[in-house]
Specification:
Number of helices: 5
CATH class of the largest domain: Alpha Beta
Helix content: 55-70%
Strand content: 15-25%
Structural class: alpha+beta
Shape: elongated
Largest sheet: 3 strands, mixed
CATH superfamily of the largest domain: K homology (KH) domain
CATH topology of the largest domain: GMP Synthetase, Chain A, domain 3
Strand order of the largest sheet: 1-2-3
Number of strands: 3
CATH architecture of the largest domain: 2-Layer Sandwich
Distance between the termini: 61 Å
């Protein structure tokens, strides 16, 4: 039951932070392309929340994370005001490379599929 509550809180934090990040005036964050909150993991005591960030332009990821870390206090206060939790978790931002990892796996699967297709075509012509 507690994990279901944490899951709902994670979703609410993710939704709220995504909205707040769009309105940040820090040029390290707003001056980049698309910045997405891909996942939030909150500790069971609601003291800390690890926020996974994906940036469309990977060359700007470090700057975006620095900008978000400097705005963490502001984001935490805004989050506390909107969610009305007993404890508002301390936000820890980290880069998320799951999209790039998934694209890499998809490319590997396509390569295997092409190789198997070429191999089966070769067997048919020999018979």
């Amino acid at each position: 039951m507690a994990s279901n509550r944490i899951g709902r809180i994670n979703e609410e934090i993710q939704r709220e932070l995504a909205s707040q990040i769009r309105s940040l005036k820090d040029p390290r964050v707003s001056g980049t392309g698309m910045v997405s909150v891909t996942r939030v993991d909150t500790t069971p005591d609601l003291r800390y929340a690890k926020v996974y960030i994906s940036v469309l332009d990977k060359t700007q990821e470090k700057d975006v994370l620095k900008g978000l870390k400097s705005a963490a206090g502001f984001l935490r206060r805004e989050l506390g005001a909107s969610l009305r939790l007993r404890y508002t978790p301390e936000l820890q931002f980290t880069g998320d490379d799951s999209i790039a990892h998934g694209a890499h796996i998809l490319e590997l699967l396509r390569n295997v599929e092409r190789q198997e297709g070429a191999h089966s075509d070769g067997e048919e012509t020999e018979e």
